Amino acid sequence: MSAAHPREVLLGAQAGAAVLPVCDHYSGVEARMRKSLALQAEMAEEFGACVFDVTLDCEDGAPAGAEAEHAQLVTELALGVAPHLRVGARVHPVDHESFDADIQMIAGRAGQRLAYIMVPKVESVADIERAAKALDAAGAASLPLHVLIESPLAVHHAFDIAAHARVQSLSFGLMDFVSAHGGAIPGDGMGVAGQFSHPLVVRAKLDIASAAHAYGKVPSHCVVTEFSDPSAISAAARRAAREFGYTRMWSIHPAQIRPILAAFAPTEDEVETSANIIAGAARADWAPTSFGGQLHDRASYRYYWQVLERAQRTGRALPGEVRHWFEPVAA
Questions:
Q1: What dihedral do alpha carbons 223, 226, 227, 230 form, nearest 10°?
Q2: Cα(255)–Cα(205) distance, rounded to whole angstroms?
C-alpha cells in the first residue's frame, strides 16, 4: 500500500487550495456574537471538529457613529476565541471612511488569531489591492481575504477577482445584487424560490461559482432570509450544493447552521462508497481499480477523496479504513 497521503497524490498542486468549513455564520450584535462563539465551541466538541466559521460583522453590526467601538469589541472577541476554533471579521467596504480604522484595529491587533477578513462590496481587482495593502500595513500580510460580490459589475470581474492570490473565497450578496438592477429583477428574486429561478440571479451564481473553482477558491452561497422556515433553508442549501457548485453557505440565524451542515454533507452511502474506493486505490498504489463493476482511476479517485474531505468538514463519521488520514499528525 502506498504510504503517500491521498491529498498529495490526488490533488497535486491543488492540495494547497482552500478547504473551509461549509457554513459561515454571521452575527454583529454583541449578544449574538457572544452566543455564536459559544455555540461554535459547543458544536466543535459535539462533532470533534470546528464545523462552521463565525464571522463577526462590522458592516451591518456597527451602530452608526460607533464604528470604532464596535471594531474594538470585535477585536476583543476574536482574541478570546480558542485556538482550535475559526473566527473572521467583516469590515466596512474599502471606500468607507471606517475601512482603514477597521483594518488597523482588527487585523492589526488580532490578525494572528483571525482566519480571514471579509471585505464587502468588492467591485474590481483594484479593491482587492486596496484591501491587501491595508492588511500589509497593519502587519497582517498572511491574512486571507474573503470577498463579497454584490453587483453586476463585480460579477463581470469575478474571474479576475478570484485569480488574486490573497483571495480565498467569493461570496454572493443576493439582496444588494437584486437592488443594483433598479427594479429590473422583481423582489421575489431575493426569496428562496426566485433566487434559484430568475435568469440574472442564476447567471450570477453560476459565474461566481465557476470563477472560484477556476482558481481553487471557495464559492460561498448567499443568505436565505426565511430563517424561521427550516424546509426553506434545507432546500436552498441542497440546491446550492448539488446544482450550483457551492461548497460553503452563509447562515444568519443559529437555526440555519445544522440544516446547512446536513445539506452540504455527503450521505452515508456516499461516504461508504468513497471510503471503499479510496482504500482500494491506496492498496493498489493508486493504479486503476474496479469497484461495483466500474473502472476507477486517479480522475475518479480525486472526486471520492473530496467526498471524504467534505464528510470530515461536516462532522460525518468516517469508516476506520480511511479515518487515519484525517487524524492530527503527532508532533
A1: -110
A2: 24
DSSP code of 107? I
What's the mean per-residue pLDDT of the chain? Answer: 94
Bridge partners (DSSP) of residue 117 are: 89, 145
pLDDT in tens, 81-122: 999 999 999 999 999 999 999 999 999 999 999 999 999 999
CA-to-CA distance for 52 and 121, rounded, in angstroms?
23
Contact between residue 14 and residue 213 where contact means Cβ atoms under 8 Å apart? no
Residues 6+ apart with CB under 8 A from 195: 174, 189, 201, 205, 222, 236
pTM of the predicted protein model: 0.92
The segment(s) of the chain belonging to CATH 3.20.20.60 are 20-264
Q: How far apart, in whole angstroms, are the C-alpha atoms of residue 207 and residue 102?
A: 30
What is the grid cell recorded at 106? 482588527
List the beta bridge partners of residue 220: 171, 248
Q: Which fold has domain 20-264?
A: TIM Barrel (3.20.20)
Q: How many residues does the chain have?
A: 331
